[in-house]
Amino acid sequence: MNSKVEELKARFQEQMAAVQDAEGLEKLRIAFLGKKGFITDVMKSMRDMNEEERREMGKYMNEFKGEVTRQLAEEGKKLQQKIEAEKLKKDVRYDISLPCESPLGTLHPITIVQRELEEIFSSMGFAVEDFAEVVTEYDNFEAVNVPKHHPARDMQDTYYLDNGELLKTQTSAAQNFILRKYGAPCKAIFPGRCFRNEAVDASHETTFFQMEGMMVDTDISISNLIYFMKTMLSEVFQKDINVRLRPGFFPFVEPGFELDIQCPFCGGVGCATCKHGGWIELCPCGMIHPNVLEMGGIDPEKYTGFAFGLGLTRLAMMKFGISDIRYLNSGNLKALDQFRTL
Ligand code: FA5
């Protein structure tokens, strides 16, 4: 009986000495420890032995099994170390003090303007919020006072999902969420990507960015709106900017306005950017409609507020003098690299 174990031990040592790699080691493990391996075979054959023989054989085999397991693990570790040492030898060593050959990336012009605006508004106490791009019809339209079949929906056709949700057409889709999250008083901006089924041209894209802002408190009036807009635009263009309000219709504000800025490039004299009119239409805005406040859980008898929906993409175009909106989504690095600022 002893000789049988001795023979197995010798066979194991012989085969272990011949192991070259992880694959060979695994084969050896299966040959000895596997379900149909030598050790299992011997263990099974113990059923036919008498009790004394079984006890003796059991002891030898358990010791042998432990030894096999230990040696396999040890050899596995050695092989792994060998592999890593070889890999290290092959590794190309870089001199990190050498100048970088590949060009550095740069932030997208829209990201640059978005971050700048976030900083300006944060410094004025506004929270910066994010919202989904796929939204419900309720958030995009109903919650901002645009019920089903309202003609204002025609101007904002978009892409619908099979489950009835849609790609948001305006950052106003987050108004209800913001009002419910903060209640009153509230000061927040929420930039975001918007989608519309548009005929694409130099100033219209199917995918573009807006930055919405809202302020709700007691006694908020249009003068607060004008103050914040003027301060923000003067920071962005690094000079005093004159603004004017024209009446504009949006179902979620009453009264509603189009805020124009006096052309920062020609000072209002007239140039190609302002199409020689001296003013540039930049930001629809107005006093939040009482229905919208109410749907957001805020008492319109007690609170008032303003909201604006800045065309972030258009602002970036203006800031960097980009003549065609299509450059911005083109992924064409040669085109985008012209607006490198960092
Ligand atoms: C709105 O989307 C309103 N939600 C804005 C608003 C918010 C009004 C809060 C009142 C209170 P409008 O559809 O005009 O409004 O879009 C706002 C701005 O988004 C536009 O002035 C323009 O700068 C930009 N914009 C709209 N459509 C496109 C487009 N297809 N491509 C690029 N920019 C666009």
Outline:
With 342 residues, the chain is of the alpha+beta class. The chain has helices spanning 2-18, 22-33, 38-45, 51-90, 109-123, 137-140, 175-182, 222-237, 290-295, 312-320, 326-329, 333-336, and strands at residues 127-128, 134-135, 166-167, 186-195, 207-217, 243-247, 253-262, 279-288, 304-311. The longest helix has 40 residues, at 51-90.
User: What is the mean predicted local confidence, pLDDT?
Assistant: 90
Outline: elongated
Number of domains: 2
Bound molecules: adenosine-5'-[phenylalaninyl-phosphate]
CATH level 4 superfamily of the largest domain: Bira Bifunctional Protein, Domain 2
Structure description:
The chain has 342 residues and is an alpha+beta fold. The chain folds into two domains: 2-90; 109-341, BirA Bifunctional Protein, domain 2. It has twelve helices and nine strands. A seven-stranded mixed sheet has the order 1-4-5-9-8-7-6. A two-stranded antiparallel sheet has the order 2-3. The N and C termini lie far apart (81 Å). Bound molecules: adenosine-5'-[phenylalaninyl-phosphate] (FA5). Adenosine-5'-[phenylalaninyl-phosphate] is lined by residues 170, 172, 196, 198, 204-205, 208, 210, 212, 250, 253, 256, 284-286, 307-309, 311, 313-314, 325.
Task: Present the secondary structure layout.
Blueprint: H1 2-18, H2 22-33, H3 38-45, H4 51-90, H5 109-123, E1 127-128, E2 134-135, H6 137-140, E3 166-167, H7 175-182, E4 186-195, E5 207-217, H8 222-237, E6 243-247, E7 253-262, E8 279-288, H9 290-295, E9 304-311, H10 312-320, H11 326-329, H12 333-336
Parallel strand pairs: 1-4
Antiparallel strand pairs: 2-3, 4-5, 5-9, 6-7, 7-8, 8-9
Helix pairs in contact: 1-2, 1-4, 2-4, 5-10
The protein binds adenosine-5'-[phenylalaninyl-phosphate].
